[in-house]
Every structure is written in C-alpha cells, then in structure tokens.
Design brief:
Elements: E1 5-9, E2 15-19, E3 25-29, H1 32-46, E4 49-53, E5 59-64
Parallel strand pairs: 1-4
Antiparallel strand pairs: 1-2, 2-3, 4-5
Length: 74
C-alpha cells in the first residue's frame, strides 16, 4: 500500500517532499510552491493524502487524492 506524502521545511530554508515510512526526503526544492506541485503529483499518482506543513513544521493543509467515500454529505 502506498504511503502518504508530506511537504516539509528543510533546515537550509528549502522544502522537501517526504513519503511516510521512508528515511529522509525523496526530493528537495527551493520553494514551497515547487514542493507542493511535486508532492501533489505524487499523491495523485499514488492515490494517497498530501500533508502540507508550514515553516514551523505544523500541518497547515491536508488534501486527499483517493479512497474518499462518495456518499458523504457536505
């Protein structure tokens, strides 16, 4: 089963895309926008959730790209 994807800040003012259950980042980007674009592509392809963290590491946004129930109201 595929693992969720996280966009997280790096120690050197960049951004990284990490996959749960792996050691370290799978890719690095100079801007959060670039990391979000790459993370979104991966999450869509793998049909998993994307977690976008702020500069302090707190989750600020969460997007699901698969396995959503169709009968949910709202």
């Amino acid at each position: 089963m595929a693992a969720n994807v996280h966009v997280v800040p790096t120690e050197r003012n960049g951004w990284a895309v990490e996959v749960e259950g792996t050691d370290g980042a799978t890719s690095h980007y100079p801007s959060q926008e670039e990391a979000i674009a790459a993370g979104t592509e991966k999450a869509k392809r793998d049909k998993v959730e994307l977690f976008i963290h702020d500069r302090h590491g707190k989750i600020r946004e969460r997007n699901s790209f698969g396995h959503d129930p169709r009968d949910v109201k709202g």
